Amino acid sequence: MKAIIVRQFGGPEVLQLAEIPTPAPESGQVLVKIKGAGVNPADTYMRTGTYAVKPPLPYTPGGDGAGTIESIGPGVTTWKPGDRVYIAGNTTGTYAEYAVASSSQVYRLPDRISFSQGAGIHIPYATAYYSLYDVAHARPGETVLVHGASGGVGIAAVQIARAAGMRVIGTASSEKGRELVKREGAHEALDHKDPKHFDRVMELTGNKGANVIVEMLANVNLGNDLKILAQHGRVAVIGNRGEVQINARDLMSRMGTIGAMTLWGVSPEEQAGIHSAILAGLENGTLRPIVGEEIRLADAIRAHKEVMEHGEGAQGKIVLVP
What we know:
The protein is an alpha/beta fold. The protein is built from ten helices and 15 strands. The protein folds into two domains: 2-121 and 289-321, Alpha-Beta Complex (Quinone Oxidoreductase, Chain A, domain 1); 125-263, NAD(P)-binding Rossmann-like Domain (Rossmann fold, 3-Layer(aba) Sandwich), CATH 3.40.50. Helix content is 30%, strand content 27%. The strands form three sheets. Strands 3, 4, 5, 6, 7, 14 and 15 form a seven-stranded mixed sheet that branches. Strands 10-9-8-11-12-13 form a six-stranded parallel sheet, with helices on both faces. The longest helix is centred in the last third of the chain and has 17 residues, at 268-284. The relative contact order is 0.16.
């Protein structure tokens, strides 16, 4: 099968297309024929060798994907060949034509969701769900500010919060991005390149501030986030690219809290619960993964460059297709 192989850590150029043997599922595992693989910023961090998760070399990147069950290993009774699934973790990497995963790491993909959409479910939607509910304890009726709302995680957070009855304010750097954010459920969409957009959040909330802030780039925004936080407000940090300086008195005066997460720290039991909720949203149409661009597997180098260049200006998920 064709797969992307990383033999040394480094820049995007270390992503090399190769022909390797198709893996076989062992006990409790399934082999998935990949129809789409989600490209996430975390994939690029791992590739450099500087991320908290450092895979042994050589390896095939990719934790997200969608496709059909090709074969099952001994002891698997919940899946059969031909089943449509999306992947939430795996053992061999999804930047490939086939990937092996535990039977508990795959979830049913509703017919209404395409394979490319399915490739953008796990990391974006699980991250958004956990940050809103488990980190920030968001509640219906509260105001949620989502920074970088036009990207994969941002769109997921907007859809989840809106479906739960929260007032949603999203930010994006382009007019098209802001149109997308509004279309996917945000009540207001602001230009985060405008330094006055923080003031605008205060205006929109009657100077009360946001109850919850989903922060994608803490090193840029966190200091200002604390100045627009409501009393007893919560910031959920899910992205950061450097050191940040804050004035703790901004947090103290609002009796606020800063929480943070990485999806790698979420237990399998918590993951199962998260994906039960996600599946319900996919089925009833409140959750709709947005695919920004499909790129051929052979062009994975370009995909890694684009996912970092676009950053908060992204408009949906970048997906690799075989």
